[in-house]
Amino acid sequence: MKKVLVLEDETNIRSFVVINLKRAGYETIEAGTGAEALEQLKRNPDIRVALLDIMLPDEMDGFEVCRRIRASNSKIGIIMLTARTQEMDKVTGLMTGADDYVTKPFSPAELTARVDAICRRMGDDAAPAEEGIINNPPFLLNTRNRTLEKNGQRVKLTQVEYAIIKLFMDNPGKALSREQILSSVWGEKYYGELKIVDVNIRRLRLKIEDDPQTPAYITTVWGYGYKWGF
Ligand code: CA
Known about the structure:
Elements: E1 3-7, H1 11-23, E2 27-31, H2 34-43, E3 47-53, H3 62-72, E4 77-82, H4 87-95, E5 100-103, H5 108-121, E6 133-136, E7 139-142, E8 147-150, E9 153-155, H6 159-170, E10 176-177, H7 178-186, H8 195-208, E11 218-221, E12 225-228
Parallel strand pairs: 1-2, 1-3, 3-4, 4-5
Antiparallel strand pairs: 6-7, 7-8, 8-9, 10-12, 11-12
Helix pairs in contact: 1-5, 2-3, 4-8, 6-7
The protein binds calcium ion.
């Protein structure tokens, strides 16, 4: 059973989330503070997805927890639970390494759809793993290990970032619309906004471009989307 960490200080919201995840077939681990969440992750290295509330009572908020998780673990899926709807929160969350966010109040269907989508992206489906290497100097993408190297150096990617790079490398030189990227990486039934594509591209550029201000690998197709190369 796939393990999901639920970090939420409000017990009624936490139980609501836990009940619905259990109903959808997930095993849940609960935490009420950032410190507890980090402790649980240490104790349960097989946690696949973490749901992190942003507003927490102690000094460590959800963004900080996200940052700390990402510092040592690029594989886990992270969804931020935000009570606020300000654009800034979403962008901050994604820039600290989250894969997705859900705005409260959310429906059980929406929540489990997001968790399912992340698990699907992580290759949890029974579909046989594709094997191989995409060599696109200076990049080398290993589709079996889901790893990326640039000039022989490993680039740490989140699962979403990996999925975006893979999509680009499968379509070199082809302009991809933001809608295409969204449906390919986040799934057809994704509820979120196109902005999530831009934020992830921005984060990815920081990791792979020589000069993120003048990207040479992921180039912008104005008014449309993005392209791999020129
Ligand atoms: Ca809270």
